[in-house]
Amino acid sequence: MTFSSLSLDLQQREADGLLRRRRTLESPQGARVRVDGEEVLSFCSNDYLGLANHPALIQAACAGAQHFGVGAGASHLVTGHSAAHQELEQKLAEFTGLPAALLFSTGYMANLGVITALLGRNDALFADKLNHASLNDAALLSRARMMRYPHADLAVLERQLASSTARRKLVVSDAVFSMDGDIAPVPELLALCEKYDAWLLLDDAHGFGVLGKTGRGVLEHCASQFTFHTSRIIYMATLGKAAGVFGAFVAGAPELIAWLVQAARSYIYTTATPPMLAAALLESLRVIAAETWRRERLAELVKLLQHGLKLQRWQLMPSETPIQPLLIGPSQEAVRVSENLRQRGILVAAIRPPTVPQGTARLRITLSAAHSVADVQRLIDALQQLEGNPDCSCM
Ligand SMILES: *Cc1c(COP(=O)(O)O)cnc(C)c1O
User: Fold this and answer.
1) What's the pTM?
2) What is the tens place of the pLDDT at every residue in 200-210?
3) In this structure, what is the dihedral angle of CA atoms 119, 122, 123, 124, given to the nearest 10 degrees?
């Protein structure tokens, strides 16, 4: 068998305008990056706090490498679990206000590990339709019955929970939805989990570091709205977005964490991440809590974009987070706007179906504390000019 059938599939994707291409970054991540030989102003990283190139984190990583070397050399259960990993797990538990935490190599692996460790054939999983792909993949791999509810539709979720006779029930939701930027109705989800005796898995990949006064994420953001019975909450967050480094963790009840060490296959059967990254992350936690100006700057930039951008057809979607999608509609139009911005030295990703529903192609604008007011104003001016430009329109 040759690979010619793959060539045909690739040609088809190309013809449909769906072929994905990678850009090559030649600089650190930041507001301004060098991409394919060109300096551009970027609004498409998840480095929300501008920590990916923070001098204190770089220094901590270097010191970590001096002390521990560059590779962990083994999985956590063999000899790869270093003092830096151990300290980071303790600090993450304290930071999130949950009893215990466990590090995973990536968010994708954390979601696979947790869901497959907790659910099997006789169990049920209830998932928001807009959840991240890793949560859906994990659900399939677990063999649990998977029920998806329309985005944030608590009435449908309640009906599904009420009619389920499964042994274990797990409600799963992005805390901040990655393509829309809106925040899940966490207090209401938790109330339903109480009522129907289910667990709640919150994927806070885009909230950790960003939400809450001290950046502790969605639980801090919602803390005033209810008291936590944290025994039901499985909190997961990633460390490669706002935290600026790499990795992920799961936090929750001590029994939950103890079980994951025994049963989460994506934890057990993989090499531990380099301890130098844990050293950098310890510094990141300190910076996240201490440098409150980063979240204040973000909030200011979000307001500037929302109040400053005056458009007719294109619309910012309702979001209070640094993910500020601009709804364009037709895919080709979104691609054209993105290309036109690129010609003006501004990088914003066009997101098209099947990543988002048909007819809702959008520019996924992400803001960072590394941006200045002038950077965001430049984006606003460019978008306002482009909306009236027939080159960009499909109408
Ligand atoms: C990015 C992301 C992940 C995956 O995290 P990685 O550490 O990049 O593997 C999981 N869930 C959500 C909602 C994400 O946005």
Assistant:
1) 0.96
2) 999 999 999 99
3) 130
